[in-house]
Amino acid sequence: MEARVKRRALLLLIICIWMPMAVLGGIGNATVSSSSPSSLSSRPRVVNIGALFTVNSVIGSSIMPAILAAVDDVNADSTVLSGTRLNVVMQDTNCSGFIGTVDALQLMEKEVVAAVGPQSSGIAHVISHVVNELRVPLLSFATDPTLSSLQYPYFLRTVTNDYFQMYAIADLVDYYGWKEVIAIFVDDDNGRNGISVLGDALAKKRAKISYKAALTTGASRSEIDDLLASVNLMEARVYIVHVNPDTGLSFFSKAKNLGMMSSGYVWIATDWLPSVLDSSDSVNADTMDLIQGVVALRHHTPDSNQKKTFASRWKIFKGVRTSNFNSYALYAYDTVWLVARALDLFFMDGGNVTFSDDPSLLSTNGSTLNLSSLRVFDQGPKLLEILTGLNFTGLTGRIQFDSQKNLIHSAYDVLNIGGTGLRTIGYWSNYSGLSVITPEVLYTMPANTSTSNQHLYNAIWPGETIKRPRGWVFPNNGKPLRIAVPFRVTFEEFVNKDKGPSGVKGYCIDVFEAAIDLLAYPVPHVYILYGDGKRNPSFNNIVYDVAQNKYDAAVGDISITTNRTRIVDFTQPYMESGLVVVTPVKEIKSSPWAFLRPFTFQMWCVTGAFFLFVGFVVWILEHRLNPEFRGPPRQQLVTVFWLALLSAKRENTLSTLGRLVLIFWLFVVLIINSSYTASLTSILTVQQLSSGIEGIDSLISRSDPIGVQDGSFAYNYLIEELRVSESRLRIIKTEDEYVSFLKKGPQGGGVAAIVDELPYVELFLSNNKCIFRTVGQEFTKSGWGFAFQRDSPLAVDLSTAILQLSENGELQRIHDKWLSNNGCSSQNNQVDDTRLSLKSFWGLYVICGAACAIALIVFFCRVYCQFLRYAPETEEPEISEPESARSSRRSLRSRSFKDLIEVFDKRETELKEILKRKNSDNKKQISHSSDMQPNSPA
Q1: Whether the predicted model's global pTM rises above the 0.85 cut
Q2: 751, 706 Cβ separation under 8 angstroms
Q3: Are 436 and 426 in contact (CB under 8 A)?
Q4: Span 250-275, pLDDT tens digits
């Protein structure tokens, strides 16, 4: 008995584990297996689903036949919902939010298990609250990005989210290099929220919506005329049109009348335009003429046999009003099949269609609205779970939802309208961006959204041109470009007030005007002086006011700094700049010891040592051969010094080694002599200046005051970057104060030095006859440019114009016109720069020293060999003794260092005679010894 109970428990456990796995397996691949008799018997004979959309609309005319056809196909297919018939209950919303809400409530009274639609985002927002309460899944065609799964858990979008469409448009704008667009949209939930996403997408591409032109729902022709006339006066020429398909074509009719469909304009339409064209029986030539050059997006649906079969059957479907259909028909067909497959799995899993009263609606029984008839679908959460987990292939491709309940693999066709039809110039997908390859192929490759991978075929733009429109023009609203110009007090050559028509003049103004003249379009502008004329204005404030739209641009001597580039766009620099240190200097009078300055102390010491060393080497090499190098020690010492100083011009060298050493030494002396002469000449002829400050480092290390030009960025730079105390800085307002502060010095209430930009410093030094000098090097590198508001297209075009001015020499001619070419030396240590140090000549000394060392080694080796052969003469009388005894005593005689010195000191000729005589004596002794030996016996 106990074993039987255990077997039953085990069997029950296996069933509990197997059943959920079987259900999950069916959901994952959407395959329908044969139903068991028990599951068939529990299924209802009819299941109601709702359909909510506007029948008399461009989208509704394609949705209705597709839904009816899908229901018929489901009911005719025995493998899906076997034993259960699908019934669709339709409600026409009539494009009205109020009627749509009422229709939705009426639909819920029919106890539907799911609702298909609506197409309107506004109605979807309201209905989503209803289905959330009644737990009925809503499979909608509304594309509003704000219909999120978090707020509306029972909302399931079965068409591509407009979120992706707006990012596709942003990629298009970025691909063609435009920075500003004008958005034209219907002021409803779908329009507002879609354009809001577009603004976010453009911001990531450093582009923006310069103006949002909103239209009321059902706007009149006069309202459309007024809106188009107003946007036509603006700068941007790229228009994003996001309107309703039922009234969109009349919009282009008005644009055509205003001349806005001509060359220079860009029109990008969302998916509404292809929906109109695809679902029309035929588009007449007049209509196509209105939209020539327009670029539009259409939901991408891959070509397949299923799609071709659907298209061939379209004309025989119920409720067909036009011979063609748009992409919403395909999505509607797949939506019905999505519900059917989900219900089939729902019933296979033992699901029952039951409804119960909503406790929150029981209190409304006394109301004439009869809200208590709305009942909650008990199994709604389970059906929703099955719907979001399905994965199958339909007419629109793969049907599967991500975690946000959006269809995966969102993609669009990029269309260009030209002639009498639509031309596909590429595709966009959230997988790889813009491409001329179909998304289905890209899905099999690694994702690549890099800029270099974005490609489209050439488009034909309005005006029948393939040249990419610039995308903007100067607004023809009578408002010229507002340009702020600094009202300078110092260095007026750069920019200054003028009595002429423009009101300003100067180097910077001439550069700007020359660049404007190179543009291919006129740029009306007006100069506005910035400042009171009593002191230089703050350049940071000028840049900030441009960023705040108080001015359109700023022209002047404005340095390009990191902080400024964060808020405005600068052109290409038209003048190089950088901070330098200007300091007072004093002239050094010539010294009696100026002849010592060409060489450094180390150079003098090494040169003197080598003079003595070479003289000593030559004396050693010549002492045995040359009679001029012999005599008393005092005379020989004088000879060594004389040889070192005059390089053997008096003494004649006889030895080969001595001559070799002198050849190298004379070469060294020749180079050193020439270098010394040139350096001394430079020192005696160039003005010698001296200053206690050598550069920015030595200036910072001191505690003396530092001068800074009024309005310059150097003030903040010294404080923030170099950590100079603010109390040390002195603001200099006029050029006279430059001179006064520098001459007074820190002890007289002036400054030790001035830190300013190089162009100002060069002009200041030139105006003051170079009585001051810059010290050290430039410690920053920057340039001057013209400032514009962020993403202004003028900044790019003027940068190109400035480069042209530089290449054709016009920039230099303007510089020569306004700024003096009398430059001043930028260094005060010219004397130090001309002094010769040991590092410039150590190679010569090494070569000469090596030659001396080799000569000495060869000489001493030769002397030692002679020493071994040499034996000093003895004064003892020669006593006859055996040869063997004399030989033994001679070998035992020691050769002392004194003997070596004796050999070295002897003349070469004398030593050779001694060695020759000893060699002859040795031969005689050997011969005599041989004669004295007895003859051997025979």
Answers
A1: no
A2: yes
A3: yes
A4: 889 889 999 999 999 999 999 999 99
